[in-house]
Design brief:
By secondary structure, the chain is an all-alpha fold. It has 18 helices and 4 strands.
Length: 479
């Protein structure tokens, strides 16, 4: 940073790494020319590179350069140990080739990337032992993968395993600059992915933000691969983003998103595939359950026949009151109670009226299962009363006993309707009270029946007038 030419380089390049690579490309130009003349430099290092006043790059100190075509060169160990290639330790000129300079270029690139020499040690012997071993370097995430690979390829211990020529080294270095926008996109996407993975799933808003951030990182990696399909960092990042999105989708029960992300992955993961399949099965079962629930709810919906059922209840109840009062009028003083046949005739009249109305409005009253249940219960009331009276006649039960039985049946019917849909608890209470009073006061049976019938009809009509007669949603929920 203290170099006087740094300001010039800052204006021409995006950052220090790009500036260093640009300088090294110029060094490659100089070496490529020298190699064509069969000259090997043997001491390439940062200290031997100079920047001129107009940005020109000089490769200095050719004092130990070797002419490969010159005969009789004497063996000698020369060079800078911190950057030296392993074959230079023997000092044999025959072991030095153009690939020796390729090694020194790789060691210089290593310094540009890390700020440290290729071979480090606390003594000269330690440094030379590292030169002899020349093990590959494990670079951190701060070093672009492409340049890290180029460094290790150029500084391989065996010359045959190195980058073949300076021209090839320069080509790969220039290729990195061309592909650097892809690297930048991948790095930005990694930062976005790290931020997304730090967001929890505790709240719905956090989940939405996390999913959008994961999608942004995936887009970044995809754009990086579009610019350079072989970008290894972007490929790894994209797979990591897809796995994170699959995990997110599994956690939020989004089977379609999980399957879509899993399909995009280039790698096959049996464990993750099993988890996605299990989620799909679970979601499919939930969908089927929801469909059955919706169908059941629709079948139990009775809102469309509310008016008809209200009218039917009012008519049946009204007829029941009229018939009861008509029978009671035959004996206004209550001295001679009605016979079972009179009772049966009144109940048959009410039942016939209910069945007739049901037939006329059958298209609507029988349109859904819920409506059929309620309408059937109303229509069955008269039939149950008739049946109980017929049984009483056959068994020789008194009119008082038959009436108590009939009232008890009314209690059961109205209570059942009140529980399942029809909100007529007052009618059920009135029927229950009437049953108890008739059982306790047989002499007042006609009056009590008439009063009970009137209360039942009034409670039904009152509930209908207030709009509280039917609880369709309650019906669906209980169904």
């Amino acid at each position: 940073r203290e170099h006087p030419q740094w300001r010039r380089w800052e204006t021409q390049h995006r950052d220090a790494l790009e500036a260093h690579v640009s300088v090294l490309l110029s060094v490659c130009d100089a070496l490529e020319y020298a190699h064509k003349k069969r000259i090997v430099h043997r001491d390439i290092k940062p200290d031997n590179v100079m920047i001129g006043p107009f940005g020109e790059v000089y490769l200095l100190d050719w004092g130990i350069a070797l002419d490969l075509d010159a005969p009789g060169s004497r063996p000698s160990v020369v060079g800078t140990p911190s950057y030296m290639a392993p074959e230079m330790l023997d000092g044999a000129p025959a072991a030095v080739t153009e690939r020796t300079d390729v090694f020194l270029l790789g060691a210089t690139l290593h310094f540009a990337l890390t700020g440290r020499p290729r071979h480090e040690g606390d003594s000269l012997m330690n440094v030379l032992s590292r030169v002899a071993a020349c093990e590959p370097i494990a670079y951190g995430d701060e070093v672009p993968d492409e340049l890290a690979q180029l460094c290790n390829d150029a500084t391989a211990r065996e010359p045959e395993q190195r980058v073949a020529t300076v021209a090839r080294f320069r080509e790969r270095l220039a290729g990195y600059l061309r592909r650097r926008p892809s690297h930048a996109l991948a790095l930005d996407a990694e930062t976005t992915l790290d931020r997304a993975e730090a967001i929890g799933l505790d709240h719905g808003k956090d989940r939405e933000i996390r999913w959008r951030t994961l999608a942004d990182s995936k887009l970044g990696f995809t754009r990086a691969l579009a610019q350079w399909p072989e970008n290894p960092r972007a490929a790894r990042g994209l797979d990591r983003a897809l796995v994170a999105m699959i995990r997110h989708a599994i956690a939020t029960e989004d089977a379609s998103a999980a399957r879509a992300m899993h399909t995009e992955r280039a790698k096959r993961d049996p464990v993750l595939d099993a988890e996605v399949s299990a989620l799909e099965e679970r979601v499919e079962k939930d969908r089927e359950r929801a469909a059955r629930w919706a169908k059941s709810k629709q079948e139990l919906d009775t809102s469309g026949t509310r008016r008809e059922r209200t009218f039917m209840l009012a008519l049946v109840g009204g007829l029941f009151v009229v018939v009861t009062l008509a029978i009671a009028a035959t004996d206004p003083e209550g001295r001679s109670p009605p016979t079972l046949l009179q009772k049966l005739g009144g109940e048959a009249t009410v039942t016939a009226a209910a069945i007739t109305l049901l037939y006329l409005q059958r298209a609507r009253l029988l349109s859904s299962r819920g409506s059929r249940r309620i309408t059937g219960a109303i229509a069955a009331t008269g039939a149950a009363l008739c049946a109980s009276t017929i049984v009483s006649i056959l068994l020789g039960v008194t009119i008082h006993g038959a009436t108590v039985l009939s009232m008890f049946l009314l209690v059961v019917v109205y209570a059942t309707l009140a529980v399942f849909s029809v909100r007529i608890w007052p009618a059920a209470v009135a029927a229950c009270a009437g049953t108890l009073l008739i059982a306790a006061m047989p002499a007042r049976m006609s009056v009590i029946v008439s009063a009970t019938a009137g209360m039942i009809v009034l409670s039904v009509l009152d509930a209908a007038a207030r709009g509280r007669l039917y609880g369709e949603q309650d019906t669906a929920r209980r169904g």
